[in-house]
Design a protein that fits this description.
By secondary structure, this protein is mainly alpha-helical. The chain has one domain. Helices cover 64% and strands 0% of the residues. It is built from five helices and no strands. Helix 2 crosses helix 5.
C-alpha cells in the first residue's frame, strides 16, 4: 500500500459537475474582488507618490481591466508551467522506478514519518532542493524545458 496515497477516494471528496462549476464560479468572483483590492491599494500608493521599486510613476499607462487581465495571464502561465513540469517529472519517475524509490527515500529522510499536513515547508525547502527532489526537478527542466528558446533571428541554414 502506498505511504502517501490510497486507491480509495478520501472521505467526502466526491465532486459533481454542478458543484465543480459552482466552486469555480465562486473562486473566479473571489479572484476578481482580490484583484480589485490589490489595484485599489496600488492606486492609493501611486497617488501618494510611494514606490517600492524606486521607479518614477507612469500615470495612465494601463487601465484597471488591462492590469487585471495581465495579472490573470501571469498567474495562469505560472500555473500551466508548474503543471507541465510536474507532469514530466511524474512521467520520468514512472519510467524509472529506481529513481522513484530514491526520491521517495530522500523525501522520507528529509521529512521523517510526520503527517504531511504538518510539514514546515519554509524550513524544508532548502534541504529538499539539495536532495534527490531538486535533482529530479532540475533534470526534468533540462530534458523538457518549461519555456523554449525563441531565437532573435532565423539562421540561413
Amino acid at each position: 500500500m502506498p505511504k502517501y496515497g490510497s486507491p480509495k477516494p478520501i472521505a467526502d471528496h466526491e465532486l459533481s459537475v454542478a458543484t465543480a462549476i459552482a466552486t469555480a464560479s465562486e473562486n473566479i468572483l473571489m479572484f476578481g474582488e482580490y484583484m480589485q483590492e490589490l489595484m485599489d491599494e496600488n492606486i492609493i500608493e501611486a497617488r501618494r507618490g510611494e514606490r517600492i521599486d524606486g521607479k518614477e510613476l507612469n500615470k495612465g499607462a494601463l487601465s484597471h481591466d488591462d492590469i487585471r487581465g495581465n495579472t490573470f495571464i501571469m498567474l495562469a502561465a505560472g500555473q500551466e508551467t508548474s503543471a507541465g513540469v510536474l507532469q514530466f517529472i511524474l512521467l520520468e519517475l514512472a519510467n524509472n522506478p529506481v529513481s522513484q524509490r530514491s526520491l521517495h527515500g530522500a523525501i522520507d529522510e528529509t521529512c521523517g514519518d510526520g503527517d504531511p499536513s504538518l510539514w514546515d515547508y519554509e524550513n524544508l525547502i532548502n534541504p529538499k532542493m539539495a536532495s534527490m527532489l531538486g535533482a529530479c526537478i532540475n533534470q526534468t527542466l533540462r530534458m523538457t524545458p518549461a519555456v523554449v528558446e525563441i531565437p532573435e533571428a532565423v539562421p540561413s541554414k
